[in-house]
Amino acid sequence: MVVDADSTDNSLQQIKTFPFRKGIDVEIIEARKRVTVYEAWNMAIDASNTPYCMNVNTDDRLYPAALQTVMSYSRVEPDIDVFYPRFFVVQDPDHSRVVNYFDGPEFTLSVLRQGCYMGPFPLLKRQSLLDAGLFDQSYRFAGDYEMWLRMATKGYKFRKVREAIGSYYINPVGISSDNKTKTERLREVGKIQELYQA
Question: Is pLDDT above 90 for 25?
Fold first, then answer.
């Protein structure tokens, strides 16, 4: 499932002409107006019919065995709602220059209250997202963090994936990494942390 948020960078055309391997059926939702990242995620979750889903933004990369790796965890532990992996951090759009290796902590609610560490592409049980109420579209930067805290305080289960399954690009104009919006991002995160303090 691909949601195009009324993009202007030719990414929609690239998706439409990309030679996906046999067996991959790509559904494209074309937004008629610019939508936020959380609106796009909710659109994809609503339209999908799979038991699990994973968000992957256009400037991040999954490794070839990523889905098989993380799905193997879901088969062993089907009661887990959110699987979050390790990943590499890069500073170039070609993902050729690794600058960090992100190895988040084991899940606890108290540590999650201190900061988000679910990473760029957790595997999510779709029904759990629907039951939790989907992503709050009023947030611009940290709606995923709010969702993880909402789920965690309601008792949903999280599990760390031991393998690195992809790389995250620190895009200088990205929604979560643009220095121009840093103050606003920190303010939103602080508001969410206040909301979910014990």
Answer: no
